[in-house]
User: Fold this.
Amino acid sequence: MQLTGDRLSQIQDLLERGMLGFVPEIILSLAVIALLLCDLGRRRIRPAVPGWIAGLALGLAALWIVVNFPAGTSPLFGWLEGSVHKPLLVNDPFAAFFKLFVLAASLVVLPMCMQSPLLNKRSTSEFYALLVAASLGMLIMASSANLLMIYLGIEFASMASYLAVGYFKQDRRSSEAGLKYVIYGSVASGIMIFGLSLVYGLTGSLALDDLASTVTASGMNATALAVASILVFAGFAYKMAAFPMHFWCPDVYEGAPLPFTAYLSVASKAAGFAVCIRFLMAFGPEFRIRFTDYAGLPDGAGFGWKEIIAAASALSMSAGNLAALKQENIRRMLAYSSIAHAGYLLMGVAVLKPDDAGSEQFGALLFYFIVYFLMNLGAFFVVHLVTVRTGEETIESYKGLGRRAPFLAVALTTCLVSLLGIPPTGGFIGKLHLLSEVVEGGLIWLAVVAGINTAISAYFYFKLIKAIHLDKAKDESFPAVAISNRLLVAALVAPLLILGIFFAPVSEWTKGFGL
Assistant:
């Protein structure tokens, strides 16, 4: 087929736009290559050098997004069907928010990696390459506009995560966690790709933009599309650590290198939510597949995403909080807390309305993401500092921390109080906003479940707070914490108190990043 001048010009414009929008991913790709080449030289480089290379790449990618922040939706790559562009990726404010979220989480985790005794005893270029590669996959997830790209992004991020979790093969816990992560991930991946293949077979398109126009089905096709959609959601639930695909979370969080555990608890969860929301919003009003012409069913009957997401939210909150009650290992306790918070975040997803053209409905959900970023990474940073100095991860080792390390004790207590949702912290404001949206959305029963689960979670959060401030330690000594670490912890914890009072500017700001 001979291409006209206008056609060639249009294709060139699409390629240029695609390459400009893909610059952050290109930077991370080059960084992965550079990190893998670091160990090929004759002279072994210092352990800190790969960390600085990774930090430079992640910082440059974040800076590019900030400087070139998209004002609207820009399609990237793909193909032309007549005059219609079918993109593989999109560059929009929603994608930019989650890309910056993932990159910021990676940058916060880097100092933890560079201080880890295990990582400082050996060449670490491969580990940092895996961290950057996982971030690259998550950036692709956040901007995917095609079923194939959704799967490739999730698999790319997952493969790098599997290797990073089991990176210390001499460590039995790390090897066990890596193996379990691979098994759970493989099952979730198989379920999801089967669902995606069914969606493609039923709709005849890989583009998310085409889902809304093809979901009106009849007879068995509608049932098959409903089943396919549930299978795809199971794959997303695995990345979000939400019910019913949450079983990998405690064992992996406990056995993985602690810095990467912190990374998974925030970055991986956010990327999973980003791709899940983009997929669900593509189905049109109320996330509903309508069964028109199905014998025996009334008009308007259909498969509603709202009810499915709400059920997953309630079960995630309950499963996470109830399982955390008996945990003595701090990492496992935070893992179950992460599952419960996936449930809280799903409340915000359940009340989204695809027919609402405005982006304000995303405000409460994205505000809670920011708060979750601060309080979860803040808690993990303190746990990392304590673990490096004591070599222990049980609640027993935190007894008397208020006297041994007052600054770390206050910081961890603030994060725990915010995770629980007590004023005056950002966690309280975040939960209040989410509950308000849920009540306005008509899911009052879900708000009641969230309230009950918040009361349940008070037990294990205050159990740790009691150990920190009221119990006596067997050993009163505690190595000093460097000023740089104190500043990093303060940078995560202080905003929680600020957002607990002066939350309005950030709350308004988050309303501009919807789809």
